Each structure stands twice: as structure tokens, then as C-alpha cells.
């Protein structure tokens, strides 16, 4: 009975009409392209010239914005370290760079929409060949693109674009140039000396709390700076000295440490201290994996083995992180035995 009921239900199901079947089987007709509408710049020479003036005006505005970014770098220095100086420096330099790049983008879009050739083109697909005819067609396509865009003909637009692109690089060069030493000193010598010295207490960054060896628990990692750093103001080079002296303090089981004979006295009861400045390009190495004892640089993924002299086990870094020799004073606080015995930071400083 159930089978007969199912059969009757199938027989009573509505069937598609013949007209619907014909509509589905008919192919969709190609509507073709809509009628071409000329732009105002195609019909009015004055509008064309006005559009051209807007384009190269934007490009020259980009040049002025790039120059302003460089001027703002000098007009709003941050040597005093105050928040107002930092805010003004970042604001006005950022505005100059932003307007420089924005003007190039808007100018290029307006150029393409108002002045370049506006004809619709349909290209049929065909097999790609390397014949002489194909190469000749490629050359011709470049010539056509030059003609349609007016790149070779519109000298004011072309030259202003070149000027804007060239000027947009200047702010970056200015900012990065100031990172290099400007007093004639050798970078290796500058990075070979930090504020660490014999008896210098290890304190937490940034609150300056001294650290006792008993406070460093197994598997923990402390961000450390020298205690005397608190005596420096931003005007006296606080940031520069801190950038060289920052240290990561880690505690392992003493038997987990692989130490050479000349470095066995550099640690204290499994506590080791290594520079946080990556030996690749100087990024802060601060990601510690407790189970593997690996330090990870977030910039380019260099990895260092804390249990084995912070040697490089992965990534582009060329040498281990410099180790800070440490011990404890009479009160149980961790102190440095000396400064680093090698330059901190990127290895490229040592190349001649």
C-alpha cells in the first residue's frame, strides 16, 4: 500500500509546461555594448585643458607636500621628549606624506578618467604564440597605449608625475638618514658600549624596580634596564641608551643550561640575561617560549636558544644575542658583572 501511495504521488506531481521548457532552453542573447557617451573633455577643448591643469596641479601639490614633510621634520623636533613635541612631529610629518601620496593617486585616477582614450575595446581570446607577428603586436600595443594615454604628448602631466614620484621618496630618506650616527663615530664603537657596568643593578622596565634573584621564578621572563638609566632625561639621550641596554632576564634549571667554560660564571643559579636587540636588524626580541627555551624576533622570525648561549637556530640573524654577565650583591639583588663583551644589535654594523 505504501508503494502504491508513493506512485500516485509521483503521478500527481505538477509537470513543467512546454512554454517554460522552451524558455529555459533558449540561449541568452548578447545585448551588446550600450551607446558610447562622450565625456565633456572629449567635446570641449577648454574642459580638456582644465582637466590637464588639475592633474599636473595635483602632482605638483604632491611635490609640495613631500617638501613640507621634510620641513616639518626640522620645524617640529622631538629632542625634548615631551608628548606635545612627539605629537606635533608625527602629525605634521604624517600629513605631509599622506597628502603627497594621496595627490598622486587622485591625479592618476583623474588623468585616466578624464583625459585618456575613452573607447571601449573587446579583445578575443586566442592562443599565445611567440611569433614575430606577436612581438610586433606587443610593440604596437605599447605605442597605442602611449598615444591613448597621452603620456608622451602631455609633457606637463608627465614631468609633474615624475617630480611627484621622486619627491615622495625624500621624506623617507630624511627620516631614515637621521638614524645613522652623525658625529663621525664608528657604529661598532657606539654599539659596543652601553650603560651596564660592574655592580649596576638590574631593574624592571619601565617602573625601575630592582630584581632579586629569589623573585625570578622558573620559566619567567623579565624585561630589564640598568638602574642608572633613570638618571637620564630624554634630552640627555635616554631613548638612545635604553635602546642599546635593554635585556631579557630568563630563569631555567641550571642543568638545562649549556655553558662554555669561560661563561659558567656569567649566570646565577640558572638565571641568564641576554640583549633584547636582534642581531639581524635590531628589532626587540621579546617573545619567549617557555617549553622550548626559544626567543623569537617578531620582525623576521629569527629564533635564539636561551639554553645554549642564545645561538641562532632559525632565521636571518647572523650571530647569537650578546650575553650580559650577572651575579647578586650582598642584598640578593641581581647586578651586572660588567658591560656586554661584544657590540649589541645588528651584525651589519661590523661589515667594512
From TrEMBL:
GO terms for molecular function: 2 iron, 2 sulfur cluster binding; metal ion binding; monooxygenase activity; oxidoreductase activity, acting on paired donors, with incorporation or reduction of molecular oxygen. Residues 244-335 form the Rieske domain. It is a multi-pass membrane protein. Keywords: 2Fe-2S, Cell membrane, Disulfide bond, Electron transport, Iron, Iron-sulfur, Membrane, Metal-binding, Oxidoreductase, Respiratory chain, Transmembrane, Transmembrane helix, Transport. InterPro entries: QcrA_N, Rieske_2Fe-2S, Rieske_2Fe-2S_sf, Rieske_Fe-S_prot, Rieske_Fe-S_prot_C. It is found in: Cell membrane. Its cofactor is [2Fe-2S] cluster. CDD domains: Rieske. GO terms for cellular component: plasma membrane. The chain crosses the membrane at residues 54-76, 91-111, 161-180. Its main location: membrane. Belongs to the Rieske iron-sulfur protein family. Iron-sulfur subunit of the cytochrome bc1 complex, an essential component of the respiratory electron transport chain required for ATP synthesis. The bc1 complex catalyzes the oxidation of menaquinol and the reduction of cytochrome c in the respiratory chain. The bc1 complex operates through a Q-cycle mechanism that couples electron transfer to generation of the proton gradient that drives ATP synthesis. This is Cytochrome bc1 complex Rieske iron-sulfur subunit.
Amino acid at each position: 500500500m505504501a508503494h502504491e501511495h508513493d506512485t500516485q504521488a509521483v503521478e500527481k506531481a505538477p509537470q513543467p509546461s512546454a512554454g517554460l521548457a522552451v524558455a529555459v532552453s533558449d540561449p541568452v542573447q548578447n545585448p551588446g555594448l550600450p551607446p558610447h557617451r562622450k565625456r565633456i573633455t572629449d567635446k570641449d577643448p577648454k574642459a580638456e585643458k582644465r582637466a590637464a591643469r588639475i592633474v599636473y596641479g595635483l602632482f605638483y601639490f604632491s611635490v609640495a607636500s613631500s617638501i613640507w614633510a621634510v620641513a616639518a621634520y626640522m620645524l617640529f623636533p622631538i629632542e625634548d621628549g615631551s608628548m606635545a613635541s612627539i605629537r606635533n612631529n608625527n602629525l605634521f610629518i604624517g600629513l605631509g606624506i599622506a597628502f603627497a601620496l594621496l595627490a598622486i593617486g587622485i591625479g592618476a585616477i583623474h588623468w585616466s578618467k578624464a583625459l585618456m582614450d575613452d573607447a571601449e575595446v573587446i579583445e578575443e581570446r586566442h592562443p599565445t604564440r611567440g611569433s614575430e607577428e606577436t612581438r610586433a603586436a606587443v610593440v604596437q600595443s605599447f605605442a597605442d597605449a602611449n598615444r591613448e594615454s597621452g603620456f608622451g604628448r602631455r609633457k606637463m602631466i608627465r614631468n609633474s608625475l615624475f617630480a611627484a614620484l621622486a619627491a615622495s621618496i625624500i621624506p623617507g630618506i630624511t627620516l631614515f638618514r637621521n638614524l645613522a650616527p652623525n658625529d663621525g663615530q664608528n657604529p661598532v664603537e657606539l654599539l659596543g658600549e652601553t650603560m651596564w657596568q660592574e655592580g649596576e643593578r638590574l631593574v624592571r622596565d619601565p617602573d625601575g624596580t630592582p630584581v632579586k634573584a629569589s623573585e625570578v621564578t622558573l620559566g619567567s621572563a623579565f624585561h630589564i634596564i640598568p638602574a642608572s638609566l633613570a638618571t637620564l632625561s630624554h634630552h640627555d639621550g635616554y631613548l638612545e641608551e635604553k635602546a642599546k641596554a635593554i635585556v631579557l632576564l630568563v630563569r631555567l634549571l641550571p642543568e638545562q643550561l649549556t655553558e662554555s667554560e669561560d661563561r659558567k660564571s656569567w649566570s646565577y643559579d640558572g638565571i641568564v640575561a641576554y640583549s633584547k636587540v636582534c642581531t639581524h636588524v635590531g628589532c626587540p626580541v621579546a617573545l619567549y617560549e617557555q617549553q622550548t627555551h626559544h626567543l623569537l624576533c617578531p620582525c623576521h622570525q629569527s629564533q635564539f636558544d636561551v639554553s645554549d648561549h642564545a645561538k641562532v637556530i632559525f632565521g636571518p640573524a647572523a650571530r647569537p644575542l650578546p650575553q650580559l654577565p650577572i651575579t647578586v650583591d650582598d642584598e640578593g639583588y641581581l647586578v651586572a658583572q660588567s658591560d656586554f663583551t661584544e657590540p649589541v644589535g645588528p651584525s651589519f654594523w661590523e661589515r667594512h
